[in-house]
């Protein structure tokens, strides 16, 4: 399984850390780490959402079809685990894409 860059990714985690693979993510902040605003200027729900995308190998796809299971491992640094969601569909809604398109049209 390999992390893949996707259109909405706005941060590259561990980009300059050779001991880790770079993880493209979308986080609910802009490239300057400020809270993202909606088109009307209001601040988005500040829930600290982060989205990443992974591409499976053919062998992994076959394993999922055969076993019907996905395992999730999370490092918590001994803090309470945060809620997670593992999905098969792109989580970006048309509304979120409208916000991104508006920002792009404004040169942001």
Q: What number of structural domains do the residues give?
A: 1
What is the count of β-strands?
Answer: 5
Separate helix tally: 2
Amount of helix: 10-25%
Give the end-to-end Cα distance, rounded to a whole number of Å: 32 Å
Overall pLDDT score: 81
Element string (H = helix, E = strand) = EEEEEHH
Net shape: globular
Q: Largest sheet, if any?
A: 3 strands, antiparallel
Q: What is Rg?
A: 16 Å
Q: Given the helix and strand composition, which structural class is it? A: alpha+beta
Strands in their spatial order, largest beta sheet: 2-3-4
Uncertain residue segments:
none
Short description:
The protein has helices at residues 58-67, 94-105; strands at 2-3, 11-13, 23-27, 50-52, 54-55. With 108 residues, it is of the alpha+beta class.
Task: Report on the architecture of this protein.
- It is a single chain.
- The protein contains two helices and five strands, in the order βββββαα.
- The chain has 108 residues and is of the alpha+beta class.
- It has one domain.
- A three-stranded antiparallel sheet has the order 2-3-4, with no helix packed on it. It has a two-stranded antiparallel sheet with strand order 1-5.
- The chain is globular and about 45 Å long.
């Amino acid at each position: 399984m390999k992390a893949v860059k996707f259109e909405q990714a706005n941060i590259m985690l561990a980009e300059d850390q050779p001991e880790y693979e770079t993880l493209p993510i979308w986080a609910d902040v802009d490239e300057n780490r400020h809270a993202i605003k909606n088109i009307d200027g209001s601040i988005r729900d500040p829930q600290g959402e982060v989205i990443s995308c992974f591409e499976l190998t053919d062998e992994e796809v076959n394993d999922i079809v055969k076993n019907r299971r996905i395992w999730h491992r999370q490092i918590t640094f001994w803090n309470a685990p945060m809620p997670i969601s593992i999905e098969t569909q792109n989580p970006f809604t048309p509304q979120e894409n409208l916000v991104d398109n508006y920002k792009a049209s404004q040169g942001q």
